[in-house]
Amino acid sequence: MIVGVKGEQIFDDSVTEIEIIDEAAGEFLVVSQEDGGQKLRFDAEEWPHVRDAIEKMFKLCRNYD
What phi, psi does 57 have (nearest 5°)? Predict the structure, then answer.
């Protein structure tokens, strides 16, 4: 799945790609951006904790609605 700003090219550095990967040890998600080539991996058990922590941090941002 590709997530980006409407109207931007899908090859833009700010586009986020989310993939399901299975290396025979169970499926996990890989989240990546072309800018810097960094990737984050999450399995289904850890994702809710990471998601909750990210939501809490966004709420601490001054411009969060």
Answer: -65, -40
Q: Which domain holds residue 44?
A: 2-60
7-63 pLDDT, tens per residue? Answer: 888 888 778 899 999 888 788 899 998 877 788 888 889 999 999 999 988 888 876
* 15 burial type by CB count under 10 A (0-12 exposed, 13-18 middle, 19+ buried): middle
Considering the domain boundaries, does residue 65 fall inside one? no
Provide the whole-model pTM.
0.69
Q: Which helix (H) or strand (E) holds 44?
A: none
Give Cβ neighbours of residue 32 (< 8 Å, ≥ 6 apart): 16, 17, 19, 38, 39, 40
What is the C-alpha separation between 60 and 12, in angstroms, rounded? 29
CA distance 25 to 27: 7
